[in-house]
Amino acid sequence: MEEVRIDLRIPNEERNLEVQRSYDLCHKINQINPNAKECKELINELFKNNIGENTNIFPPIFVNLAENVKIGKNVTILNGFQCMSAGGLTIDDDTMISLNCTIATNNHDVYDRPVITCKPVHIKRNVWIGVNVTILPGVTIGENAVVGAGSVVTKDVPDNAVVVGVPAKVIKMLDADKFKK
After folding, report:
1. I need a labelling partner for 168 at 20 to 30 A (CA). Which of 32, 110, 134, 141 fits?
2. pLDDT tens digits, one per residue of 142-153
3. Which residue stretches of the chain are H helix?
4. Does residue 51 have a pLDDT over 70?
């Protein structure tokens, strides 16, 4: 997966408009009753309808470039979700993301800090991400994987793996044949 570099010293009106649109919509979403029909409508607007059916996202949320996020069907994202999405984020069907999770698809160049380095994050089908997990740029989390609470995911997670810790490491492999199809 190739890294994309964005020099923040070079003005980009299109990007700036999307950042402002995302910030404004996140603010509105976070100020209204999460059970209100308007909340769901604003969430769909935030992600430009790149959300599958039966997906539920519970505020508060923060996403800086929401047009770069694609969310499958039957996904649940609980309160406190934060995403820096310049590199792109794909969340496949049937995924559960627990409270206060952070996904960063971009970082700063350590020597030239106004440059952000971007790599996409892909969360595959039927993943369960525990409370307070952080996922870093360029990571793919494999199908049926479980990421334990408080983990920091710095590298790809294999299909059917349970990972925990800082940095997250595989502690167990799940039997793929036991998952409901």
Report:
1. 110
2. 999 999 999 999
3. 13-31, 37-46
4. yes
